[in-house]
Specification:
The protein is mainly α. The chain is built from 15 helices and eight strands. β7 and β8 form a beta hairpin. The longest helix has about 40 residues. Pfam families: Cyt_bd_oxida_I (PF01654).
Length: about 475
């Protein structure tokens, strides 16, 4: 009989000690978070695009802009409802799947979620007012009723980022005998990682929402629908994303250096670095197998230069991480590939944004007929979502094996009760139903709007109202 002395192999010993519920809990959390994160950009940024269109419609007397604003507001309302469902499931999962986290650090970790709840209710109230206000409120009063929607969505996203960033760099608490005895809310919320991660997520939201919306109108123009409505819808959304993208790249580069300083194990996984050293190359692609990097493209010194602005910068490798808290080889490979995908997709989108600037500057009149550019722009929607998901994989998997870095390991936080696989199956069914229903509703709205046509569509209030005449328009008629 073959026997293995687990004491000689700490990684095997750690794997053997993992609770049975850890794998299904991780899979369920990964799935629900991955699903929900796609909806977040539309809750945060689509409302801002809606207000930009609304403002243009009122200031410029542009009825197509008002039609865009109204339609985008309805799409935002649908996605807000779906996001409320998926976000609620995530909230319950934190307590049900990870009682060790909430039981020990709930007093601190729960504070940002309490703030998020306040922003959620504020957003829900003003979403209802804005949607109901079409046809019923004076134009500028209606516009201003939408501003709290955008602000509350940004505040809610910031609160969630505060909780997540606290897990990466916890602070603002005093521990005694393994329990939290004092919480300093300001330090918990505005922890050392908060601001960079907040701006990173906020910019990502505008990039994803902008490119996804722009891709819809790019496809429409490829298919021959090239009126002012399509062009305006494309320009508002695409320009918003294109402006946010270079700022996002700068913020992301700054975050990478923050990770280098505060989370060396995550940085080592990002760089696929098994051993500590200087003059570290940047590895593109590749995998870690038996402690060695294989099949990657090595660019000399670049990792050290990016981390500390000089080739002699010393980067801590995975060998410097104690074996019992070292990420597994699979986790390292996932983090490295997710980071490469995030950076690679960002560069692709930046190239399309630069292409847009060139087309707009040199051949503005060909924008609506340049099928090659429109094809590339239409793909940016999918690419932006892939980039967003990859970024969250880097954040969440890169923190492993910690759920709160330096304080609580994931395996120590997971529930020890029950069988989680049936629960995971139930969540899959629920999300499949919700996702299918949302897609069906959005496609139904799209078909109805296409039947109406895009030009001379009845608007809730026309240009005369923006000039202050006091007249209101409903169903295309002045009343």
């Amino acid at each position: 009989m073959l026997t293995v002395d687990l004491a000689r192999y700490p990684l095997l010993l750690a794997a053997a000690a993992e609770p049975d519920q850890l794998l299904p809990a991780r899979e369920q959390m990964a799935f629900t978070l991955g699903f929900h994160i796609i909806l977040v950009p539309f809750g945060v940024a689509l409302t801002s695009l809606m207000l930009i269109a609304n403002y243009r419609g009122l200031r410029k007397g542009d009825e197509a802009a008002l039609v865009l604003a109204r339609r985008w507001s309805k799409v935002a309302a649908v996605l807000f409802a779906v996001g409320a469902i998926t976000g609620t499931v995530l909230s319950f999962e934190l307590g049900l799947l990870w009682p060790g986290l909430m039981g020990t650090y709930g007093a601190a970790f729960g504070f940002p979620f309490a703030i998020e709840g306040l922003f959620f209710f504020l957003e829900a109230i003003f979403v209802a007012i804005y949607i109901y206000g079409w046809d019923r409120m004076r134009p500028w009063a209606h516009f201003w009723s939408g501003v709290p929607v955008a602000l509350a969505s940004i505040g809610g996203a910031g609160a969630v980022i505060a909780a997540n960033s606290w897990m990466n760099q916890p602070g603002g608490i005093t521990m005694r005998n393994g329990k939290v005895v004092d919480v300093r809310p300001g330090e918990v919320f505005f922890n050392n990682a908060f601001w960079l991660q907040f701006w990173h997520m906020l910019l990502a939201a505008y990039i994803v929402a902008g490119f996804v919306v722009a891709s819809v109108y790019a496809v429409g123009m490829i298919r021959g629908r090239r009126g002012h409505y399509q062009k305006l819808g494309f320009l508002i959304s695409f320009i918003t994303a294109a402006v946010a993208l270079p700022v996002q790249i700068f913020v992301g580069d700054t975050i990478a250096r923050q990770v280098f300083d505060s989370e060396p194990a995550k940085f080592a996984a990002i760089e696929l670095l098994p051993t500590t050293g200087t003059h570290v190359p940047e590895t593109l692609g590749g995998v870690l197998i038996d402690g060695e990097v294989r099949y990657g493209i090595s660019v000399p010194w670049v990792a050290s230069i990016l981390a500390g602005f000089k080739p002699s910068t010393r980067i801590q490798g995975l060998d410097a991480v104690p074996a019992d808290i070292r990420p597994t080889t699979a986790q390292v490979n996932i983090v490295h590939w997710a980071f490469d995908i995030m950076v690679g997709t960002s560069m692709l989108m930046l190239a399309v944004a630069v292409w847009f600037v060139w087309v707009w500057w040199k051949r503005r009149n060909t924008l609506q007929t340049n099928r090659w550019f429109l094809g590339a722009a239409s793909l940016c929607g999918i690419v932006s979502i892939l980039s967003l998901e990859s970024g969250w994989v880097v954040t969440e998997v890169g923190r492993q094996p910690w759920i709160v870095v330096g304080l609580l390991r994931t395996r120590d936080a997971v529930t020890t009760q029950g069988n989680l696989w049936p629960t995971f199956a139930g969540v899959l069914v629920l999300y499949l139903a919700v996702g299918t229903g949302a897609i069906w509703v959005l496609l139904s709205m799209k078909r109805r709007w296409q039947k109406q046509g895009d030009e001379n569509v009845p608007v809730p209030y026309g240009p005369d109202d923006a000039a202050g005449s006091g007249r209101e328009r409903s169903e295309g008629k002045v009343r």
